[in-house]
Amino acid sequence: MMNMEAVKAEGLSKTYRGKEPVEALKGVSLSINKGELFTLLGLNGAGKTTFLKILSTQLAPTRGAAYVMGYDVMAQASEVKNHIAVVPQDVQTYSNFTPWEYCYYFSLLRGMSKQETKDAAEKALRAVELWELRNRICLSLSGGEKKRAIIAMVLASGVDVLLLDEPTSGLDALARRKVWAVLRELVEKGATILLTTHIMEEAEMLSDRLAIIDKGTVVAKGTLDEIKGLAKEKFRVVVEGNHHDLNLEANSHTKFGNKQIVYVADEDAALKLVGTALKKGLKAEAARITLEDLFVRLVGRGEEA
Known about the structure:
Strand order of the largest sheet: 6-7-8-3-9-10
Structural class: alpha/beta
Oligomer: single chain
Largest sheet: 6 strands, mixed
Order of helices and strands: EEEHEEHEHHHEHEHEEHEEEHEH
Strand content: 25-35%
């Protein structure tokens, strides 16, 4: 089954049994190409982590099938494990482990030679800027440094497919961007990354393609431009001040205190609205819609109105 798809899901469903069964995934079908970074976006409870757990052989689907590097995650789990590395959501470090030990021993256990392991560990730790802290136990590291140690461990593994469940949550802006640079470099060298995130800027900056999942169902997928193309309104205008006399009833809009985001069809309409607002003494600026705008409109279920 080896082909250009690194990950493939076909009608993947998962129901958690209990007094009230929860259908976490509802027939999800996705394919991720080799050498691309694919992002999965969704609210808490949308099914993102369940999807990753099935791909990493930690959880059996109720229906459907999934493949990693051509191997069935159920029938060929041991083969799948040889090709993946996982950063779970909210992963914790062992207090007495050092970043070096995480990278070195994890890679050694995967069958790499000692010299290969040393080289890979050093490269990974330098990439996330932990080389100078490589021999400090994790108990003495900050939360962001601990997260980078886990990411370095996965980077050092040299696997084909990385499954990263909100890997930069808890990192400050500077550390997050350093991780972004490392992930893009890995993809350029041929790795495949499946990433879940709540950070819209992260999805916009990193993704080759992405999918939005809502209540276990994929509601949009494609490139960033293709996803944004789903919106009727292509521009947004942020108006600050008393906007009651702007006659906005005909436009979709969202209010935040004395600020309001107004969605309009095109640039001409955006500039016209900005001009009107400025004439009335209000602050206003126009820009193209963001991924977050579209995400909220697809999964917000009307709350924004």
